[in-house]
Amino acid sequence: MITCNGIMGLSLLIGSLRRKVAVFNAEGTGAALATVTTVAGLSLVLPTFTTSTPGPRFSTPQLIFAAPAALVLYGLFVATQTFRHRDYFLPVTTSGEVIHGADHAEPPSQRAALTSLGLLGLALVAVVGLAKTVSPAIESGVVAAGLPSSVVGIAIALLVLLPETLAATRAAQRDRVQTSLNLALGSAWPASA
């Protein structure tokens, strides 16, 4: 919710301040939002309605189905975004035409993509480690302020999403609303899976 309402809303607001209308490619954003919503429904909502185990949990057979299904959806989306319909995710002009030119990087080589994937995994471990390190201080601050314990999770989520939020708002300020929305929806994947 922080991503889909907060970061996307902020991106659209900032993008529309300059031109009065935020211009983006609806096909790409719609595909990303539909996939995130499907994976979130599969992994966060569906366990609430299953009755095979007490509480909002999947049983082992259900988990054996849900985890690969989420990975397949993610894989199909990434293939669509990087190969099949790459233009859907590139910035567009006010008339809706894809901006072609030197502003876009060429698709990476397989080696560069695998290196980036490894570095992304390493960065994810670092972010989770930092969140675990900072969480006791946030928790004590929340308790001292007399706030509900759920505020701790929200504060940590906001902290983890801060780099994506800053990158998305900077992109929106440069009239790259599509890039901004791509960043926002890309940051929703860890929360929905």
UniProtKB/TrEMBL annotation:
Compartment(s) of residence: Membrane
Species this protein is from: Streptomyces caniferus
A GO cellular component entry from the record: plasma membrane
Keywords, sorted A to Z: Membrane, Transmembrane, Transmembrane helix
Transmembrane segments: 21-46, 58-79, 112-131, 143-162
Any Pfam family: Na_Ca_ex
Superkingdom, natural source: Bacteria
Membrane topology: Multi-pass membrane protein
Keyword Lipid biosynthesis part of the UniProt annotation: no
Keyword Endoplasmic reticulum: no
Top-level taxonomy: Bacteria, Bacillati, Actinomycetota, Actinomycetes, Kitasatosporales
The protein, known as: Sodium/calcium exchanger membrane region domain-containing protein
Domain Sodium/calcium exchanger membrane region: 116-188
GO molecular-function terms, A-Z: potassium:proton antiporter activity; sodium:proton antiporter activity
